[in-house]
Amino acid sequence: MLAILRNIASKARSHASSIAAMLSLASIAVPTVAFSQATFESCIARLKARAVEDGIRAATADRVLADVRQVERVIREDRNQPEFVTTFADYFERRVTPERIEMGRRLFAEYRDGLRELTSRYGVPGQYLVALWGLETNYGRMLGDVPVFDSLATLACDGRRAEYFSVALVDALKIVDRGDMEPARMMGSWAGAMGHTQFMPAAYLAYAVDGDGDGRIDLSSSPLDALASAANYLRTLRWERGIRWGREVQLPEAFDYSVAGLARSRPLPEWRMLGLRDVDGRPLADVDLEAALLVPSGHEGPAFVVYENFRALMRWNRSEHFALVVGHLADRIAGAAGLRSPPADGIAVTRDQLLRLQLELSSLGYDSGAADGIPGPATRAAIRDYQRDHGLIPDGHLHAELLEALGID
Questions:
Q1: Rounded to an integer, what distance in angstroms lies between the CA atom of residue 242 and that of residue 373?
Q2: How many whole angstroms separate alpha carbon 399 and alpha carbon 88?
Q3: Cα–Cα distance for residue pair 369/226, rounded to 1 Å
Q4: Distance CA 217, CA 213 (A)
Q5: Where in the chain are the domains?
Q6: Sequence-ordered list of residues with C-beta below 8 angstroms from that of 136, at least 6 positions apart, any chain
Q7: What is the pLDDT of residues 119-157, one digit of tens each?
Q8: How far is residue 336 from each of residues 327, 328, 332, measured CA to CA in Å?
Q9: Which of 60, 151, 374, 384 is the most buried if burial means most Cβ atoms within 10 Å?
């Protein structure tokens, strides 16, 4: 009888998980704008009222928001951000290209004097600023072609992150209201980010500075303004002067991958005691520096120890893939060689599959955090714990055998 009851309970949990998965999938899988024009207009009216309450002149709000439109492409981009839905190998190889490295080195040399001044003032070495420039807009070649107010209005009315983008819309109105820019010049990414280093309106208001000394701030036309603003922003994100972002390392045979992960940092001497070495085979430095171990392609790919400045890069963009690529591209711009262990090919998964994975792991007692289809630290920790308990290498990485074991196709 006990066995029968257990079987019934197990089926019930599986059924509940399937229902939850379908309901959650319905909330994220719609690729197009899911609200009518009347609903959009009602939302814009609320946003106008909110802006006026926040101190924006009514005339500014009326003028700017009179002709905003919802953009389906913006919703599609929001649901399919490459940092979260591609493998590390694909993400890395598309961005750390010979052309981008060479262009970064040429611009690093061209702006050398200005970058040295920024390093002295803000503590951020120039190669990181150039790397961010390269990653965000390919050195100004891809500044974005979506009207900022269309992007922000679409996302503010979409519902998934309505509050965040409602605040961003009001911040963008502040830029216009104080006379910094006219709406027609505010073109940017699908998310409303602007300029060579892609500042959201709040970042513009708080951290944008005049880098070329002409008495005005122009992040779209002045690379020095954009680079200086990026340096100022990184300083506030707790960039530590004189410290690297991290480095590639070698792991010993039969390594316990369960100690990897951004939440499992420990002093560098402890990693040294666990047998980690630099890529030339030397033991890691015996210095008191907190570090975490990341294996973005799992046990078959490269391994990195990352320091506090890696976390600063993640405060800029919360993707580990993004921060790793910025750090490595900065090293290459400064003259370093490529990775000793190239990223291993992985399996590409959709957000729907990731959501089902999160729900299934949670139903089995492995806390994967919010079921949002984004593989964050909690999801990787749950994967790692599941792998450990089922005789798999606990690297927290999505392997085909894991998805097969959980019945996810």
A1: 37
A2: 13
A3: 36
A4: 9
A5: 16-80+148-184, 351-405
A6: 193, 196, 197, 198
A7: 999 999 999 999 999 999 999 999 999 999 999 999 999
A8: 11, 9, 5
A9: 151
